[in-house]
Amino acid sequence: MRINNKRIGIYIETLYKFLFLGVLFSILLLLIPIPKIVNFVSPWYLLIFFVGLIILLPKFGHQIFIYNSDGEVLNIKTEDAFWAKYSAKSKRLIDFPKSKLRDFKIKESIFSKKLILYVNSKRSKKGYIKLYFNISYLNQSEISDLNHSLNRLVKMNNEKKSKKSFDNE
C-alpha cells in the first residue's frame, strides 16, 4: 500500500513565500517608514513576528510523508516541503524488512499526530527500537489506511512468530 501527501507541499511553499515577503516588507518599513503603518504597528514587531514564524514552522516536523509497503521492505520517507530543496537534514528515509515490525502506535495530541513504530533490533538492549514520524499533515482517510496496513503487518508478523514457536515445541 502506498500513502503519499505531496499535495500539501504547494501550500507549505506558498506559506513560506508569504512569510519571506513579510520579512522583506518589514525591512522596507524600517528603511522607509510609512506613517499610517508605522503608527499602527512597529516594523520591528512585524520583523520579529515573520522571522519567528519562519523559525518555528520547521519545529512542527516534516510535512510530506510517503509510506510504501509494497514488496518485502517497508519504506517511509519524510521531508520538509520547503527546506528539503536546500538542506539534506530536512529529508529522512527509513526502510527495513516488514518482518522486523513489532508494533506501532498513533499518538494524538492537540496540535500534532505522531506515528511510533517499534522495530526489532539486535543492537538495542530492549530488543527493539522506536521510530517516530510526524503524521499531522495526513488526512483522516490516509491515517485510516496507514492504520489498516500496519495492523495487517503486525498481525502477519505475530502469526509467523507464534507459528515458529509452535514448530519449535
How would you characterize this protein structure?
By secondary structure, the protein is α+β, with helices and mostly antiparallel strands. Helix content is 43%, strand content 27%. It has four helices and seven strands; from the N terminus they run E-H-H-H-E-E-E-E-E-E-H. The protein has helices at residues 8-31, 35-40, 43-56, 140-168, and strands spanning 2-4, 64-68, 73-79, 91-97, 101-108, 113-120, 128-134. The strands form two sheets. Strands 1-2-3-4 form a four-stranded antiparallel beta sheet, with helices on one face. It has a three-stranded antiparallel beta sheet with strand order 5-6-7, with helices on one face. Helix 1 (8-31) runs antiparallel to helix 3 (43-56). The model has no long low-confidence stretch (mean pLDDT 88).
